[in-house]
TrEMBL record:
Keywords: Heme, Iron, Metal-binding, Oxidoreductase, Peroxidase. GO terms for biological process: cellular response to oxidative stress; hydrogen peroxide catabolic process; response to reactive oxygen species. It comes from Mycena albidolilacea. PANTHER family: HEME PEROXIDASE, THYLAKOID LUMENAL 29 KDA PROTEIN, CHLOROPLASTIC-RELATED. Belongs to the peroxidase family. Cytochrome c peroxidase subfamily. It comes from the Eukaryota. The keyword Cell cycle does not apply. It is an enzyme of class 1 (oxidoreductase). Destroys radicals which are normally produced within the cells and which are toxic to biological systems. This is Peroxidase. One of its GO terms (molecular function) is metal ion binding. InterPro entries: Ccp1-like, Haem_peroxidase, Haem_peroxidase_sf, Peroxidase_I.
Length: 587
């Protein structure tokens, strides 16, 4: 029997209650490197061709350039499902309703750390959090940037990071961190969702930020610094003076300055509708709009960094006025210009990463996306379950959606999906969800590829299809070996397809190390085929025992991983231990 509590790193309560709660969220690892597209290579390839074309126009045919352009267009718009990392990033980026953090920014004035009327909002905290994470960047030496370093208490305790907005943000956004979603990617998506969900423009998102393992050098601008210091600070971060004006105005479309961390800027307001005494930057502090500029230009602004009683800390006044108000005037005159400028600047801010970090292309929503597709072995049958998302589609009771799948022996089968729900709450784009019926597949025939039809129109990823891996699957004979609540004990069974070169099978448990960074703890299955083999699969089994004394809030769940021909795969499943049935005879 494998004692997971001993095999696991000692992660018991490394960072207090927040870390305890984040460990509830368990998902999958960087092992999925086999299915990550190599964007670096594609970009390098394209770059070389364009450079050659510029130098030797006759050598590179128009046709070839057209091909390169096409490759760029395609890679900028979609990726091929499945890709564990891109699927997870795409989901967090677009499926707001599927993720816990939607409730923290919807409606936009939610501030879950206090009752209503606090004057604060999670949305404003998340935007400021992203800026302060990025603002340590040094364009000269490539250090700092969006790398999640603001999660370290050493960084949070610096005067430049005054207030509890960062610890609040880290606590909430860590809920979405896992082997596929770095802390910094979660911070970036959190800021994007806050902005888009609260009236802001659509912001291009690239994934792949790499988390720092310790705090960065200080470098976030502070209000008492003078204009030259701010221009120099933004230049060090990689922003021109006019970009500085824009980015500050865009960020300060949300939130305000609190009395508590900034008593020299904002007095106690003694307002029951603003219990944390926040003097807001504009009159629409939980909504993105150009009021930050119109109120500034019209002279009605109450922005505490413009009309604060202490002129030393009126940094927005100095910054906004540093080009004779030209930029702010243009923003005041055009909400569209303000929105498009902010979309560009926010994206630049979020894409400012330490040198060497290679971000993906902009991640766009897949028009047709299977979700949570799972296979489970049940005797001689494979049970296929899952969902399908149709993007940018409203509910239509008359729509017929079918799944078609090819098995391994030349057969083709199909079934109709049931309409499940329509998400209309995404900031802009509705999505219709469909559920697979319980599908029983002959285990010997297995499954290779799915396709879908929507009202008869074929959706098959341009002929590639949607691949399903039936080589190593969870087996429904898995069960709890005792009803004890501590330790929790179970036997996990996995079906390994006959004839497949499987060198290793293991349970994966997503958790965090002491840094904290997401890790996957693996528990190997002994390479024996102990229980009755089905005609198509042999069964590998392992016992687990988990001492939950130090992790009372954790959901103990595992995914199934394996190495086949030296390549790691995972089912990305969430096989919850307490959801397993009791084994026959167990008490
Ligand atoms: C010279 C540059 C900047 C200075 C001196 C500055 C200063 C400040 C100060 C003193 C606060 C009050 C914080 C609190 O009370 O908790 C604040 C809030 C905020 N800042 Fe800035 N800021 C700057 C640039 C930016 C930028 C570039 C962004 C984003 C793009 C940004 C986004 C925010 C947001 C969203 C808040 C509101 C936070 C909340 O209400 O919880 N700031 N800023």
């Amino acid at each position: 029997m494998t004692d997971l509590s001993r095999e696991t790193h000692d992660i018991s309560n490394p960072r207090g209650p927040v870390m305890n709660s984040i460990r509830i969220v368990l998902r999958t690892l960087i092992d999925a490197d086999h299915d990550c597209r190599d964007f670096a290579k594609i970009r390098a390839y394209n770059g070389v061709h364009f450079a050659l074309a510029a130098l030797f126009p006759r050598l590179i045919s128009k046709r070839m350039l057209g091909l390169v352009l096409l490759v760029q267009l395609v890679t900028a718009h979609a990726y091929t499902w499945p890709s564990s990392k891109l699927d997870a990033l795409e989901s967090l980026r677009f499926d707001l309703d599927k993720h816990a953090f939607a409730g923290f920014i919807r409606p936009c004035d939610v501030f879950i750390f206090s009752g209503p009327n606090s004057g604060r909002s999670d949305a404003a905290d998340w935007i400021r959090n992203a800026y302060h994470d990025m603002a340590t960047h040094n364009i000269a030496d490539g250090t700092g940037g969006m790398d999640g370093s603001i999660r370290f208490s050493e960084e949070q305790s610096r005067p430049e990071n005054a207030g509890d907005g960062f610890s609040n943000t880290v606590g909430l956004l860590f809920l979405e961190v896992n082997r596929y979603i770095s802390v910094a990617d979660a911070f970036a998506i959190g800021a994007i969702q806050a902005i888009e969900n609260c009236g802001g423009p659509e912001i291009a998102f690239r994934g792949g930020r790499v988390d720092a393992t310790g705090p960065n050098s200080p470098g976030v601008p502070e209000p008492q610094q003078d204009l030259d210091e701010h221009i120099a600070s933004f230049a060090r971060q990689g922003f021109t003076q006019s970009e500085m004006i824009g980015l500050v105005a865009c960020g300060h479309s949300f939130g305000g300055v609190q009395h508590d961390p900034f008593p020299d800027i904002v007095p106690e307001l003694n307002d029951p509708n603003n219990t944390q005494s926040v003097q807001h930057f504009d009159s629409t502090n939980v909504h993105f709009d150009n009021n930050i500029a119109t109120e500034y230009i019209s002279g009605t602004t109450q922005n505490p960094l413009v009309v604060g009683f202490n002129d030393t800390t009126n940094s927005d006044k100095r910054i906004f006025g540093s080009d004779g108000n030209a930029t702010m005037l243009s923003f005041a005159n055009s909400p569209d210009l303000f929105a498009s400028t902010c979309a560009t600047l926010f994206a630049k801010m979020l894409d400012t990463v330490p040198s060497g970090v290679q971000l993906t292309d902009v991640i766009r929503a897949l028009p047709v996306k299977p979700d949570n597709v799972q296979l489970a072995l049940d005797g001689d049958t494979l049970r296929l379950s899952g969902q399908l998302r149709l993007w940018n589609t409203t509910g239509d009771v008359n729509r017929t959606v079918r799944v078609i799948w090819d098995d391994r022996v030349g057969g083709t089968h199909n079934a109709t999906l049931a309409a499940a729900q329509v998400d209309t709450n995404s900031p802009r784009t509705p999505a219709a969800w469909y559920s697979f019926p319980v599908l029983s597949l002959d285990a010997v025939a297995g499954i290779e590829i799915m396709r879908f039809t929507v009202n008869g129109k074929l959706e098959d990823q341009d002929g590639v299809g949607f691949a399903v891996d039936d080589r190593v699957v969870f087996a429904n004979t898995s069960c709890r070996t005792s009803s004890s609540s501590n330790p929790l004990t179970a036997r996990y069974d996995v079906g390994v397809r006959s004839g497949v070169n499987v060198t290793r099978v293991y349970l994966e448990e997503d958790t965090f190390d002491d840094i904290p960074l997401p890790i996957v703890v693996k528990t190997d299955f002994p390479p024996t085929q102990s229980t009755t083999p089905t005609s198509a699969y042999s069964i590998w089994s392992t016992d687990v025992s988990v001492d939950v004394t130090s992790r009372p809030f954790d959901v103990i769940q595992f995914s199934i991983g394996a190495e086949i021909d030296g390549v790691k795969i995972t089912d990305n499943g969430q096989h919850v231990l307490t959801a397993l049935p009791l084994c026959p005879g167990a008490t």
